[in-house]
Amino acid sequence: MTYVMRPLSCDPSRIRGMSERMIISHYENNYGGAVKRLNLIEEKLAELDFVNTPGFQINGLKREQLIAANSMILHEVFFDGLGDESDPGAGLKEALARDFGSYERWRAEFIAMGKALGGGSGWVLLTWSPRDRKLVNQWASDHCHTLAGGTPILALDMYEHSYHIDYGAKAGSYVDVFMAAVNWSVVQRAYEGMQE
Fold first, then answer.
1. Is 138 in contact with 160 (CB distance < 8 Å)?
2. Does residue 124 sit in helix, strand or coil?
3. Are 136 and 147 in contact (CB under 8 A)?
4. What DSSP string describes 40-96?
C-alpha cells in the first residue's frame, strides 16, 4: 500500500495565533516527511528476505515503520483538530465531565500536560479507551507511546517544529493558542464515531 498525504484539513490562513508559514511548514515537512518515510520503509520491508535477514535489521525496520505510521496518523488528528474558536458540543462536554469531573478539570489537565512537555517533545492526546469505555488524557513522549487499543480524537503536537517558528521557546503560549483553535465539531464527530 502506498500512503499519500491527506489534504490539509484546516485553513492555515484562519488559525488565529499560528502563522500560515508555520502550519504549512509543519504539514509539508513533518507530516509529509512521515508519509514519505513510511512509504520507503514499506518498500524495504516488501523486499526483505525475512528468513535470512538478521533480527536487529528486522527490528529496526519494524520500529521505524511504527514511528512513521504513528507520526502520520497523529499529525492527521492534530491538523483535523485545528479550526475556528469553538466549544465542545453538549454530548462531548458531558462525556468530559463524566470522565474528568468537569470540562474545566479536563481542560486544566490537558493544558498542564502540554506545558509540561514544553522544551521537550511529544504529544498530548485526548483518547477514547474502549477497554475502560471512557476518555483519557494521554502523555506520549514520542510517536510510539499510544494507549493500546485507544483512539486519539484530539492531538496536541509538542515537538518544537509545531511551534518554534512562531513562539520560539515559549511553548506555553503555543498551548494556549492551540486550545483556542480547537475545532470541536471534528473532535465531537470522532468521539461519536467511537460510541457506535
1. no
2. strand
3. yes
4. HHHHHHHH--TTTS-HHHHHHHHHHHHHHHHHHHHHHHHHHTB-S-----HHHHHHH
Whole-prediction pTM value?
0.93
pLDDT in tens, 43-96: 999 999 999 999 999 999 999 999 999 999 999 999 999 998 899 999 999 999
- Cβ(92)–Cβ(184) below 8 Å: yes
Q: In 3D, which of 136, 138, 142 has the Cα closest to residue 122?
A: 142
Rounded Cα distance, 78 and 101, in Å: 25
Q: Of 138, 127, 137, 122, which Cα lies nearest the Cα of 171? A: 122
Q: List the grid coordinates of 121.
A: 517533545
Per the structure block, which three cell numbers stand in for 182? 480547537
> In DSSP terms, which residues pair with 157 in a beta bridge?
123
- Pair type for strands 123-129 and 151-157: antiparallel
pLDDT digits (tens, 9 = 90+) for 138-179: 998 877 778 888 999 999 999 999 999 999 999 999 999 999
